[in-house]
Specification:
By secondary structure, this protein is of the alpha/beta class. The chain is built from nine helices and six strands; from the N terminus they run αβααβαβαβααββαα.
């Protein structure tokens, strides 16, 4: 049985999220400043987006900057913000060319006016694209997401649009970030730590979790395909391999 016949697209995850950890350690191992690792990590973002498009995965969510990252050294935070703006400006046209919708997920109020304006511009440009959605979680925290959803529902209660006794999980879910996209199927963390660090707490309730020691700048198609294969094997028990996942991706190009 070939990879194509064995691995029906319905068996693949439709929403993958990645905690991109290890940029700083990668740079330090190269004898370079931590910010060098963040810049190198952009290449892994490109590879991951391309791989998801090839496999037909509908949503990819990347944890770029958590609400806790503000505690990092001021110089590193400033560099991360500059890098975010630079990548946003340089990559959005390529995303648009490949029919990818871009969404920035998180509390954007602390960002400066220039960055927020560029976020709005990028989201508007790609709003009608349909091949996949790339979510960038920036100043995001899972607890913030849940509290923000609760505030939205409380406002409806105060306005008389909703009775508190009628509240359901489905209603709550509609207030959570990315509620218009497929439910999260697979959560990957690079860098060796085995925790989800306040990322997508609500969305990850039934997601498969996959951890790797690979540092984010070294995260390539081979490692990604192993994660996808692990998901397929856990969910569908087909016993597929990472090589078959890569073959499936290659076949989509032909």
């Amino acid at each position: 049985m070939t990879a194509i016949t064995q691995l029906n697209p319905k068996n693949l995850p439709q929403h993958v999220a990645i905690i991109m950890d290890g940029n700083g350690r990668w740079a330090q191992r190269q004898g370079k400043p931590r910010v060098w690792g963040h810049k190198k990590g952009v290449e892994s973002v490109r590879r991951s987006v391309s791989f998801c498009r090839e496999l037909g995965i509908k949503s990819l969510t990347l944890f770029a900057f958590s609400s806790e990252n503000w505690r990092r050294p001021e110089k590193e935070v400033s560099t991360l913000m500059q890098l975010f703006l630079m990548v946003l400006q340089s990559e959005v046209k390529t995303l648009h060319k490949h029919n990818v919708r871009l969404k920035i997920v998180g509390n954007l109020t602390p960002f400066n006016d220039k960055l927020r304006a560029n976020i709005t511009k990028a989201e508007q440009l790609t709003a009608n694209n349909t091949s996949m959605t790339l979510n960038i979680a920036a100043n995001y925290g899972g607890r913030w997401d849940i509290v923000n959803a609760a505030k939205g529902l409380l406002q409806k209660v105060e306005q008389g649009k909703l009775a508190s006794t009628d509240l359901t999980e489905d209603m709550f879910a509609k207030e959570i970030q990315m509620n218009d996209q497929p439910e999260l199927d697979l959560l990957i963390r690079t860098g060796g730590d085995i925790r989800i660090s306040n990322f997508l707490l609500w969305q990850a309730a039934y997601a498969e979790l996959w951890f790797t020691d690979t540092l984010w700048p070294d995260f390539n198609q081979q490692v990604f395909s192993e994660a996808i294969a692990a998901f397929v094997n856990r969910e569908r028990r087909f016993g597929c391999t990472g090589e078959q996942i890569r073959q499936l991706a290659q076949s989509s190009k032909g």
